[in-house]
Amino acid sequence: xxxxxxxxxxxxxxxxxxxxxxxxxxxxxxxxxxxxxxxxxxxxxxxxxxxxxxxxxxxxxxxxxxxxxxxxxxxxxxxxxxxxxxxxxxxxxxxxxxxxxxxxxxxxxxxxxxxxxxxxxxxxxxxxxxxxxxxxxxxxxxxxxxxxxx
Length: 150
Fold this sequence. Notes:
By secondary structure, this protein is mainly alpha-helical. It has four helices and two strands, in the order αββααα. A two-stranded antiparallel ribbon has the order 1-2. The radius of gyration is 28 Å and the shape is flat. The model has no long low-confidence stretch (mean pLDDT about 90).
């Protein structure tokens, strides 16, 4: 099969997929709304008990368990922590100024922006190069028809 035939087939299949998606989208929207409403009702039903058990266990994050109507319910609240790098750098110096080793208390991570690296003079790039690893992404193919010259 030629590339042109395969690309035409792909375009036709993508069009069919879009048409099918468009035809079922209204029904899906109704069902998604019903699921969201049911989830809200479940949360309203369990909220007071889950809040009480978290308070009792002094547990703001992680998993808590309750039993309700023959079901063991587990609520898990995860957390993502971000640290202000400038403030941590200040903390680093405070610890260091007391004579303690800041690396006993914290980890350091250095980053170099790729755009900035590309703008460095070659001799500076050579200093950074041993610490740089480049992993390629999956190739992305784009196809456009070539117009015949007139």
